[in-house]
Amino acid sequence: MSKTSSHAAAFNALGDPTRRSIFEKLANGPLSVVHIADGLPISRPAVSQHLKVLREAKLITMEQSGTRSMYRIDRDGVRSLRDYLDKFWDQALLNFKELAEQAEKQKKK
Amino acid sequence: MSKTSSHAAAFNALGDPTRRSIFEKLANGPLSVVHIADGLPISRPAVSQHLKVLREAKLITMEQSGTRSMYRIDRDGVRSLRDYLDKFWDQALLNFKELAEQAEKQKKK
DNA sequence: ACTTACCGTAAGCAACCACTTACTATAAGT
DNA sequence: ACTTATAGTAAGTGGTTGCTTACGGTAAGT
Questions:
Q1: For helices A75-108 and B17-27, what crossing angle results, to 10°?
Q2: Contact A95/B27, CB-based, under 8 Å?
Q3: What span, in angstroms and rounded, lies between the C-alpha atoms of B45 and B38?
Q4: Which residues from 7-66 of A have any strand C atom under 7 Å from their CB?
Q5: What SS3 state is found at B64?
Q6: According to the model, what pLDDT value does residue B9 have?
Q7: pTM over cut 0.85
Q8: How many CB atoms sit inside 10 A of residue B106's CB?
Q9: pLDDT in tens, A20-56
């Protein structure tokens, strides 16, 4: 049942506000590390560390060209997470509905 | 644009594995605190603390009847989060597509 | 060759956080 | 009334983690 564990890293990664900022930046298009760090109130190495976490969570990917590292959204990883969440929402709301109907029946008895 | 901040608490809440377990349990139906704590490898007060975090993140709700506290999924809160994520995914994937097309054009030039 | 730009890793530290053990409080059962 | 069951809060603690500075390493420009 519980398949959350496979996406645990993703949830954990998005749990940090700085990482969410980075993730949102990348949602607008690929960026190099310096451009990601630009505007953020932390040092560049700190950004690198966050990028590592996001990458291990399969939320972003990295591609090297020369000394530059381009980061971008991981299309597949994001889609996988989205699918999981959709199923989870649906299931939860379905159970919710069933319980409501059950309570209704109980009332009429 | 960035409306993540309003859902920051939710992401943060789901970032903890124990809280995800609790959240998943409640997805199957409402439970009291002892029933939630049952099976979890932590003390009951710890569970109470997690429940507080989840409640403040608008992921679950609480209803008291006597000395019992029944917890359940927050339908509205979950839906709100889902809507935000859907928009975010769509936007990210759209940008992704646009960039791909742009790269394609660049190639043909 | 030498410098500059870009980026990751290492080590150390301060702040946060999840957990425990008390304790308190209220309601139900006897 | 007394006990039991349920649950939230307080205080303290160990471990995690996000940050910094320092360093190393590679590629591009001059």
A1: 40
A2: yes
A3: 12
A4: 32-34, 44-45, 48-49, 51-52, 62
A5: strand
A6: 92
A7: yes
A8: 8
A9: 999 999 999 999 999 999 999 999 999 999 999 999 9
Average model confidence (pLDDT) for chain A? 87
Nearest nucleotide, CA A62 to C1': C7
Verify if strand C has an atom below 7 Å from the CB of B22. no
Q: How many CB atoms lie within 10 A of CB A47?
A: 20
pLDDT of A10? 93
Distance B71 CA to C20 C1' (A): 23
Q: Looking at strand D, which nucleotides approach a protein CB closer than 7 A? A: 5-10, 17-23, 25-28
Instruction: Report the range of poorest mean pLDDT among A22-31, B31-40, B77-86.
Output: B77-86
Nearest to A81 by CA among B18, B20, B89, B24: B89
Check CB contact under 8 Å for A92 and B27: yes
Q: For residue A60, what are the β-bridge partners? A: A73
